[in-house]
Amino acid sequence: MRLKKMAAAGTAALVAVALTACGGGFEAPAEGSAENTGGAGAPEAETVFKVAFNQNADQPEAVAMTNLGEHLAERTDGRYTLEVFPNETLGAQKDTVELVQAGTVDFALVAGSLLENFNPDFVALNLPYVYDSQEHQEAVLNDPEITGDLYTSIEDQNIRVLGGFSAGTRSVYNSSHPIEKPEDLSGLKIRVMESDTNTRMLELMGGTGTPMGQGEVYTAIQSGVLDGGENNESIYSNLKHDEVAPYYSYTKHLMIPDLLITSPEIFDSMSEEDRAVFLEELQAAFEESSELTATVMTESQAAAEEAGAEFNEPDIAPFREAVKPLLDEKLTTDTAKDLYDKVRAAAE
Ligand code: GCU
């Protein structure tokens, strides 16, 4: 839903109505509640696109999207801007994909894994150890020769992918002991993102994968429902998972991209010229976020150590070996295999 600029209270009421109308399982925050304020301040423009984000407003992607909104407003003479709603304010990622499909939310940043539920070929971007480095991943994500067809493949389900951010490297952490080898994960319940691939991956790595939205993880570990999770250093520290799961082991098994999704109808409602400006600024946002990411990860590790977390560097070869069957199990179509080959070729 595109919102014309209006008083905050009116906006909140509209959102609540729209969210109710689309019948999603998500409750809109109460009017006037602290949660109801986007992290990006109050942008001025005729049309304010809402961007759903599940992490805090200081994360590189949120900063870059907020700046994109400002540049967009300037370059479209105030026709468009963006407002980033951080911290799952508009729902967990799974909900926000549905809200984008329904046209209730204009854009969402979601982990690539979630789009496997709409087209399993997305798996080629989300497999363990598929990328050699952040540079490799970024070269793949925004090269139309590699990802162009994939990104438009689910338009019949009202989702268009506009590009992808690198969201760091993920490793496992838990409340019990450092992980040195796959056997050390035996008996541990580790939260994974909501795709079958991730559940199976964790099983192959030696533990048990439990799919869940990011916002519930802290309490689940604290109450013993989970033993840990797997994520980058920034989420680990920012969401204070280090308090309840102080052993962070650098298995470095995943680099999951965060993809920017919208609905074709929303995006194409802009003129061709404005769309071109948006896409140009999006490239700049990718670059800005990329530069911030490395720093944020290093600072987050230091903050977690300060808070008492213990980091260790296991030999990753046995983990890499353990997850190999996932390739055959998941790359089941020619398109997915071809995509995977192109991703790997970009590393060379
Ligand atoms: C990271 C990633 C998100 C993802 C989250 C998660 O924060 O950037 O896209 O949702 O991890 O583990 O759920």
TrEMBL record:
Gene3D superfamilies in the record: Bacterial extracellular solute-binding protein, family 7
Keywords for the protein's UniProt record, in alphabetical order: Signal
Organism: Promicromonospora aerolata
Signal peptide span: 1-23
UniProt keyword annotation of Cell inner membrane present: no
Domain of life assignment: Bacteria
Protein name per the record: TRAP transporter substrate-binding protein
